[in-house]
Amino acid sequence: MDFEATQPENEIIAIGAVAENGATFHSLVKPQLSSISSYVSQLTHISPEDLEKAPNIDSALINFDLWMMSQESDIMNCRFISYGDDDKFVKSTLPAITNEHAFTVAAILMAKIEDCSAETKRFFHGTIKLVHAFNYVQAVETEQKHNPLEDAMMLQKVYEHMQTHDPLP
After folding, report:
1. What is the model's pLDDT at position 76?
2. Pick from 93, 131, 126: which is nearest to 109 by CA?
3. Where are the alpha helices (DSSP H) in 3-129?
4. What are the tens digits of pLDDT across the range 118-131?
5. Cα–Cα separations (whole angstroms), residue 138 to 55, 77, 110, 143, 157
6. Is residue 131 within 8 Å of 108, Cβ to Cβ?
7. Which residue of 31, 42, 80, 139 shows the fewest CB atoms closer than 10 Å?
């Protein structure tokens, strides 16, 4: 999974996730505590107008939980793989959460998100950006668009490759 967030506040503005079976989840999130900067807007191609129409974090997390339940009946059985310490975005967004169900989903995410960047670093023998690992694994040349769903899909391909191949020599 992947998040996009405001800077420097790190409030979530977008969520993307891919299940093992290829099912996807994507939601923009209307920030409650901060606003999107022009830098983040240019980087992510998410406009302030897009976020005005987006659900709040409570609704987005409840929708994510409903999607997760359609993939796996118990969210506690799921693994959440990220590239970097994405749990910080969830933690920074906690003050905006007002719904108990949404807060529970956020707490589970914070507890269960696994950062696979260290594993990727070992596999590739050094620090590597997600897009470069993806380009190697897929033998393509693409640019990272900082779309959380596309980033989650890239991560899924890289992670699956690392699970089925030996590290680079």
Report:
1. 82
2. 93
3. 38-44, 48-52, 57-71, 87-93, 100-112, 117-124
4. 999 999 999 999 99
5. 34, 29, 30, 13, 8
6. no
7. 139
